[in-house]
Request: fold
Amino acid sequence: MDAWFLEGSGLESATPSLLLLLVLTGLAAGFIDAVVGGGGLLQLPVALMIPGITPVQALATNKMGSIFGTATSAVTYYRRVHPDLRTALPMALVALAASGGGAAVASLLPSEIFRPIIVAALIGVLIFTVAHPTMGQLTALRHTGARHYGLAVLLGAAIGFYDGVMGPGTGSFLVIGLVSVLGYSFLAASAKAKIINLATNLGALMVFTANGSIVWGLGLVLGVSNMLGGYIGARTAVAKGSTFIRTIFFVVVTVLIVKLGWDIITGR
Reply:
């Protein structure tokens, strides 16, 4: 445990079993994030297990780890799916700025304020998706021209802000927004969501870097694991298609509802 990248990281006192758990969690989180988002649901709680780490440090370091996996999956999707950048890039730019604002707010307001709203939104998303079983199988854009791009930018701003404030489930919100509001298939939505999610991670990361919240050694461990998981996840999603992504989406959103609901009940 004397390696230079562990010094001052909080990992010097981590047991080998905790380090292994971090690696496996980063791998799984990268895979889930690449398919439909929500990897932070796994990664953030494990980061909080590091001795002496604060919630803001855990959130910041989670962003650092996630950006490696998101970048890898975004490139993989781009090479194999060729998503329309005319929609993805404006969303990404607005989301980047909004995520930075959310990260600044995260250090001022407790996340407990937002959790009930997020749980209610997730339940609504789940019910809506179940009620529309064919939604997201094929791309059938609901709007064109300025209305399409205007709604895309609004989605990017809202979800980017959420990613900076809390984070877990951002990819899932992006996917369902792109599917339900704009009319993309789950596969096309996942490909675009990775580009946007990369921007939101970067926006939050810039703020967290400036205020010194990142635990670099931990972020490096999570980042390498996320890269591998993101690559495998993106290739699997492309091979399996929208039906597979929709199934994983149901699982991730359900777990998010249970996890955040339990945190509200127990006051965590």
Q: What stands out?
A: Residues 13-266 form one domain. The CA atoms of residues 70 and 107 lie 24 Å apart. Residues 1-7 have pLDDT under 50 and may be disordered. The radius of gyration is 17 Å.
